[in-house]
Amino acid sequence: MTRTTSFARSAVVLTISLLMCPCAALAQERAATMAGTVGQWWGMIERQFVSLADAMPEEKYSFKPTNGEFKDVRTFAEQVKHVACANVAFFNEIEHKDPPPNCETGGPDPARTKSELVKYLRDSFAYGDRVVRTLTSANALDPVDGRYGGPSTRLGISTLAVWHTSDHYGQLVVYLRMNGIVPPASAGTAR
Q1: How far apart are CA 124 and CA 118, in angstroms?
Q2: Quick one: CA dihedral 122, 105, 142, 28, positive or negative?
Q3: Largest Cα span, the chain
Q4: Which end of the chain has less Cβ packing within 10 Å, N or C?
Q5: CA atoms 120, 125, 126, 130: torsion sign
């Protein structure tokens, strides 16, 4: 038997085996609800962002880039606090509550140390989880308005929260790498 024949037989066997397997075993399950659809991405960025915040040593939380176009950027700690405050603000707006003031500068929460900031961050994601779980096809387009998200819908602000956190995640990946740290999501260790 030649290599070509052997390869062809192996390819046929593999193809038949794959066709006989249930599709659910081969593909990631699709979220069946509005909350599940948004929640899968909210959960993904939560794992990546919290792992990233955990990976930065406490003594580096005051780091901010200075070489290049980094005038007036936030420190790592300020970025984490801003994201936590913004998470609370976006989901407060969805629930028609007053969001915390001044999230641009970290907001009113007194968190300062790494452990306090990571707790605030985790709590903000847990709050977001609770609100996302209430999202349905019946209420997804309900109007929402507020100083952080502007006029939108429950779905729109939920999507904005995912985007906003992802944007800051990308910025903080650079901070970690500038300090010789591979982000956990890139290293395959995000939890």
Answers
A1: 10
A2: negative
A3: 74
A4: N
A5: positive
Q: Which two tokens stand for residue 184?
A: 């956990």
Encoding tokens for residue 78? 């300020």
Mean pLDDT by 10 residues, the chain (191 residues): 46 40 45 90 96 98 92 96 98 96 95 98 98 96 95 97 97 96 86 66
Torsional sign, CA 145, 148, 153, 154: negative
Does the global pTM surpass 0.90?
no
**Per residue, what are the HEC states of the chain?**
CCHHHHHHHHHHHHHHHHHHCCHHHHCCCCCCCHHHHHHHHHHHHHHHHHHHHHHCCHHHCCCCCCCCCCCCCCCHHHHHHHHHHHHHHHHHHHCCCCCCCCHHHCCCCCCCCHHHHHHHHHHHHHHHHHHHCCCCCCCCCCEECCCCCCCEEHHHHHHHHHHHHHHHHHHHHHHHHHCCCCCHHHHCCCC
Contact 141, 157 (CB under 8 A): no
Let me know the angle formed at the C-alpha of 187 by 84 and 26, rounded to the nearest 5 degrees. Answer: 95
| Beta carbons of 79 and 57 less than 8 angstroms apart | no
